[in-house]
Task: inverse folding
């Protein structure tokens, strides 16, 4: 079973041990960059599977300021990472589903959760779809690694 926990100091060593394959780094943050981002408008979380931290992500409260497709009463998902040694086991899909439940419970003041996923990352796109996100059918073109699909999760 996958659970979501707010990042705390005790998680830091396990997060530092999370790695992506070199070809995936362009799509997300490294653990070092994730830990260094202590912006108050970003809430950081870890993904726990069978008692082990296997990934991380952040929710960006002011996502609408940098992404015009996001409304002011929505937030953004960024830097969703599952350790390369744990990929391909369904953990990412379970984590996305758990995130949807977590968002509905703990962020009920927001109506929607947005993300962008690179068009060159079909495995991540499928993971988000299986986890409950929907494709808007539109592209975000300002990403550093090329066009990205815009997706959203609406708990209603």
Result:
């Amino acid at each position: 079973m996958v659970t979501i926990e707010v990042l705390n100091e005790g998680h830091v060593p396990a997060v530092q041990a999370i790695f992506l394959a070199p070809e995936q780094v362009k799509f997300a943050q490294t653990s070092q960059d994730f830990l260094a981002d202590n912006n108050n408008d970003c809430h950081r979380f870890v993904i726990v599977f069978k008692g082990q931290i296997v990934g991380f992500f952040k929710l960006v409260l002011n996502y609408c300021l940098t992404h015009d497709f996001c409304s002011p009463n929505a937030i953004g998902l960024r830097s969703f990472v599952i350790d390369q040694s744990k990929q391909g086991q369904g953990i990412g899909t379970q984590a996305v589903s758990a995130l949807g439940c977590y968002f509905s419970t703990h962020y009920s003041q927001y109506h929607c959760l947005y993300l962008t996923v690179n068009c060159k990352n079909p495995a991540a796109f499928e993971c988000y779809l299986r986890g409950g996100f929907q494709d808007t059918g539109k592209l975000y073109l300002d990403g550093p690694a090329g066009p990205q699909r815009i997706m959203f999760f609406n708990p209603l």
User: Anything to note?
Assistant: The first strand starts at residue 2 and ends at 6. The helical segments are 12-16, 31-36, 91-106, 122-131. The chain has a mean pLDDT of 94. The domain at 2-110 is CATH 3.40.630.30 (Aminopeptidase).
